[in-house]
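Hi R.,

As promised on Friday, here is the backbone we talked about, encoded as structure tokens. Could you run it through your design pipeline when you get a chance and send me back a sequence?
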């Protein structure tokens, strides 16, 4: 992953202030779709599924980070490890994510520790009676949410769609270790395909 971003920077594909998004998606653990299993009443046998958290560079649709685990599960615990991995390859200036990542500590660590200038996650009301957030960054977003900038999250959805369309949504490996290795190889393949196509 680091090498693909070195190539991208050398070829001028990474802008001075990179914009990125973080998002999670589920993969099929079998070549039979989850929809088919649900319709045939066999879904209970396959409740767990491989879940990937990605950080995407908007300008190139390269993947800067990947976290692997099994779902269904919350997205939030994978946020800091994924972004920590991404900033080693990409000096992120603005980071976008959905409401699953709406945690004050995520804003704080991104801005103060990793130098990310702007973090945009919609406020996720944890209780129906909750009023204005009291913490600094969540309160700022509550007062004035940048809807125009947030709409640029379509890059993440487009990249996930592209990844599954080109490489498939089902994993071939059977063990957890092998599936994680397969997912890492898929990320490298995804990035190399983008570099080759743009070259």
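Update: got your reply. Pasting your designed sequence below so it's all in one thread:
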């Amino acid at each position: 992953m680091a090498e693909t971003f070195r190539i991208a920077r050398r070829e001028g594909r990474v802008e001075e202030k990179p914009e990125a998004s973080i998002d999670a998606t589920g993969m099929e653990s079998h070549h039979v779709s989850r929809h088919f299993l649900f319709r045939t009443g066999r879904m209970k046998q396959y409740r767990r599924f491989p879940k990937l958290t990605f950080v995407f560079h908007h300008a190139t649709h390269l993947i800067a980070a990947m976290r692997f685990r099994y779902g269904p599960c919350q997205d939030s615990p994978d946020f800091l490890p994924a972004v920590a991995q991404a900033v080693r390859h990409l000096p992120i200036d603005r980071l976008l994510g959905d409401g699953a990542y709406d945690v004050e500590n995520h804003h704080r660590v991104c801005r103060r520790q990793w130098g990310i200038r702007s973090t945009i996650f919609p406020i996720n009301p944890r209780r129906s009676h909750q009023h204005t957030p009291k913490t600094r960054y969540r309160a700022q977003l509550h007062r004035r949410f940048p809807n125009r900038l947030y709409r640029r999250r379509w890059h993440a959805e487009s990249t996930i769609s592209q990844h599954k369309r080109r490489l498939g949504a089902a994993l071939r490996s059977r063990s957890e270790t092998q599936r994680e290795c397969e997912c890492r190889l898929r990320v490298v393949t995804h990035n190399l395909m983008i570099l080759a196509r743009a070259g």
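One thing I noticed while checking it: Helices lie at 2-10, 34-39, 79-86, 104-113, 136-143, 147-150, 154-167, 176-198.

Thanks again,
M.
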